[in-house]
Design goal:
Layout lengths: L1 H22 L3 H7 L1 E3 L9 E2 L10 H34 L2 H12 L6 H14 L4 H25 L5 H8 L4 H12 L1 H16 L3 H7 L6 H9 L5 H35 L2
Antiparallel strand pairs: 1-2
Helix pairs in contact: 2-12, 3-4, 3-6, 3-9, 5-10, 6-9, 6-10, 7-8, 9-12, 11-12
């Protein structure tokens, strides 16, 4: 028991350090968001004020947040099933053909975002594609490496015999998809959807260039505030508005896993 307790304490300590490592970068913008005055060499703000948070309730900011939410949702809804199809194709094709599919799916990671946007933007303009649709299409390509990788990792542990057993029991293809594949790939689907949503929610370069200034999102508002002198408090508030919602969603998604792990440890 002492050894078990020590192991649990070490794991808890490492987990706490990782959480601090992730949350530490949020401390400066959190202080700037309530800093009325903060001049060097003071370590902490000289005065505090929360009036800058009212910008989050302004109609322009609310519309930008809804656009970011819609953009992230559209990217996730398209990139998630495409990533699954790509992963299934890479798994089903033998040898070099499967590796070629993997290479194609991961290729957007090797292309600088600026080059990708400028290369596609001319075509979108000639085809008169609306700004929102054009940005969403480019971001789907950007998100595909993440969604396909999530499903590719999950499929390595997926046994095709599950489908064979279901067929033996008389299950139709749609029943196999609903009752066998979907539950077994549910965790990977959630992770892939979340990563694709983040690509759309937090994008700046693609939205700015392909949107042509016609698409206002939270990151574009943040970029405009950051480029204006003397707007440190506004920039910090908008930064928190971009970062905190995904962290809350991530915590909500991770909570069932954590609770399930704790219940299994406490079980007989």
């Amino acid at each position: 028991m002492p050894g078990a307790w020590r192991g649990a304490a070490v794991r808890a300590g490492v987990g706490a350090l990782l959480v601090l490592w992730i949350l530490a970068p949020l401390l400066p913008p959190a202080l700037w968001s309530v800093a009325d005055t903060w001049q060097a060499p003071a370590v902490l703000p000289d005065g505090y004020s929360g009036t800058a948070f009212t910008v989050l309730l302004q109609p322009g900011t609310v519309r930008a947040a809804l656009t970011s939410l819609l953009l992230g949702g559209c990217v996730a809804l398209v990139a998630t099933p495409l990533g699954l199809l790509g992963a299934l194709a890479a798994r089903a094709l033998p040898g070099r053909r499967g590796r070629a599919v993997d290479l194609i799916l991961l290729a957007p990671l090797a292309i600088p975002p600026f080059a990708l946007v400028m290369g596609v933007n001319v075509t979108l303009l000639r085809l008169h594609v609306p700004a929102f649709a054009g940005v969403a299409l480019i971001l789907v390509v950007t998100a595909l490496p993440y969604t396909s990788f999530m499903f590719r990792s999950a499929l390595t542990a997926y046994e095709g015999r599950f489908d064979d057993v279901a067929r033996t029991l008389g299950a139709a293809p749609h029943q196999i998809l609903r009752h066998v594949r979907s539950p077994l790939l549910a965790a990977a689907t959630t992770r892939a959807f979340f990563l694709a949503f983040l690509v759309g929610w937090g994008d700046y370069i693609t939205t700015l260039l392909a949107g042509g200034g016609r698409l206002s999102t939270l990151p574009t508002l943040l970029g405009a505030a950051a480029s204006s002198p003397g707007s440190e408090q506004l920039t910090a508030v908008l930064s928190l508005g971009v970062v905190i919602p995904p962290l809350v969603v991530l915590a909500a998604l991770a909570l069932p896993t954590v609770m399930g792990s704790l219940s299994r440890r406490e079980g007989p």
